[in-house]
What we know:
The protein is α/β, with parallel strands linked by helices. It has helices spanning 19-28, 42-52, 73-82, 158-161, and strands at residues 7-11, 33-36, 62-65, 86-90, 100-101, 112-116, 136-139. The chain contains 4 helices and 7 strands, in the order E-H-E-H-E-H-E-E-E-E-H. Helix 1 crosses helix 2 (42-52). It is globular.
Amino acid sequence: SGRAPSCLMVLCGVNSGNLGAILRGCALLGISGFCALERLSRTDVARALRSAKLPRRGCSIVLSNAAEEGVPPALAIKRLREAGYKIVGLAAETACIGCQPIWQVKLTVPTLAFVFGVDRDDGKAFPDGVEEELDAVATVPMCSTEASSPDHIDTLNVSDIA
């Protein structure tokens, strides 16, 4: 078995259509580990890898599908911490209390895991038990339209942030 990635992206729930863009962003930013905490089909993953159009050489992404392995999300996050990772959750400002702007979170650590919140609008940033396992919860603050506007946007899509 090879060395564990120094930086991981952990997705709590994502629209499978965004997965290719997310993997491409990870690879381009040097994030070489990817873990899904929600079940993704092998077809979804294969399609995402094709759409990411990653070079065959010099670009490696380690994929893990914790849900497929039967590991509950909170336990998967706990195991990452036990493996030495600092765990930073990323969520919409409106979905979490006590979020800090991303630039206020210390990210200069040897091993780091970014946990991206759920990619749906149910008011919960993370699956049950996950937020309690995080070392910090950060957000990318938005300059957005008026909140009263019907087309108000207050967050980036998870594939944009990646």
